[in-house]
Amino acid sequence: MFETCKSQPPPVESDTWxxxxxxxxxxxxxxxxAPASASALLDRRDSSKVILPKVKIGGTAGRSLSVKKNExxxxxxxxxxxxxxxxAVNVSRFEGxxxxxxxxxxxxxxxxxxxxxxxxxxxxxxxxRTEELQPYVLNVVRKAEKLMLEKGENKEYLPIxxxxxxxxxxxxxxxxxxxxxxxxxxVATVQSLSGTGSLRLxxxxxxxxxxxxxxxxxxxxxxxxxxxxxxxxxxxxxYRYFNPRTVGLDFEGMIADIKAAPDGxxxxxxxxxxxxxxxxxxxxxxxxxxxxIQEKNHIPFFDVAYQGFASGSLDTDAASVRYFVSRGMEIxxxxxxxxxxxLYAERIxxxxxxxxxxxxxxxxxxxxxxxxxxxxxxxxVHGARIVSNVVGDPVLFDEWKQEMELMAGRIKNVRKKxxxxxxxxxxxxxxxxxxxxxxxxxxxxxxxKAQSDNMTNKWHVYMTKDGRISLAGLxxxxxxxxxxxxxxxYHNIS
Length: 494
Ligand SMILES: Cc1ncc(COP(=O)(O)O)c(C=O)c1O
What we know:
By secondary structure, the chain is α/β, with parallel strands linked by helices. It has helices spanning 106-114, 139-151, 164-175, 180-183, 194-209, 224-231, 251-260, 283-295, 314-317, 319-326, 358-376, 382-391, 394-425, 434-437, 449-457, 479-492; strands at 16-19, 32-33, 65-68, 83-84, 121-122, 187-193, 215-219, 236-240, 242-243, 248-249, 266-270, 299-304, 331-336, 348-354, 442-444, 461-462, 468-470. Helix 2 (139-151) packs across helix 12 (382-391) and helix 3 packs across helix 12. The longest helix has 32 residues, at 394-425. The model is unreliable at 7-67 and 73-80 (pLDDT under 50).
């Protein structure tokens, strides 16, 4: 698969590049972004202003402009705003920049903060809270930080691929230290900016080395997946995953869609604790998924943001990934320590690419570094040191596992209490047992947008509009209140 991945960049065909979009950093040209109001446009008769010839660029992929190799252009990029080569007077050159909508997940927290009602509950963002609904810093993290302080380590740049000690322990945690792929040095591991940054780096790699490949994304999926591939200009399409009738996995639909896709797609899979549904394939289903992926010459791409958080066991939650590796498949794995070590703000994670040979792994790693360098240069050190101190130290590692079991256990208790409350308080006899069969931080309630709006507007329960609630943000004490809100929204709003 990685035979085309050489240490050099893809060749430039000629010394002119086709660009569909200009960089706005052509500083001296005073570009203004359309649509600017007519009065804002430069009066072409005023000789004191810079006037540039009007050039048709941007807008659609079909229109293009030839520019010299050394010019600052966005290579092979599409842009949605139309740029007129006209300078602006007494008006911001950002008139054409429209207001972006709030992020569907992080925007929920903003709305929650603005709500002054005491009963409010934030079940939007997937971040662990204590029973008192307070953020939690793990004891092992505090201990690791104390050790780091005592050592008085410096703040020098890390290499592009990150902290060596981190890369070693993170790959071992994911695949198992005795995994032949690790022993044979077939895994290219690069520290990256948590799960999101690792996905983004992989997307850039796909865009560069598999420009014709499409990524298949479960429907539904974590909302940022599509943004990531859109921004990396990687085409994607959905595969069926959720069956609203059973509030379970649409396994037949999933297999059919993966089969129907053109050969050689990347199939994005949630390694455990599928977000937002909380529904994971069984081990038999994983086997069939691997069969069809191999049959179609697809490339599995695992997103593992919840290792240890689904079952409470790091090994159990890595079983899907390890199974695919054991079948000799080349796979991508994006890893995150936001949830399982509570290192949300440290932006610590990794991208692992398991290759068939150690030589391919070396080449892939060299290209991942090459992509990372102009994106963020090198990753931050603090989180990497925390992880390597915790995972690399047998005592702290054991303590971490215990703490993780406690966190996962609290979520399981809340899940059970919510189910009990719904069953007891809903007099219609509706079966809420699907909540118990879901796994991880989230529950996909099956509430539609109008019902989710009612949860927020009437009950001050903040959640994403796809009906997902984060049980990590719920306490036992609030389960009955939440059950009332769900029952009201489900039965009284259509
Ligand atoms: C499925 C999935 N992937 C990736 C991430 C990325 O998280 P982070 O960038 O904080 O590691 C999340 C976070 O919610 C997620 O749910």
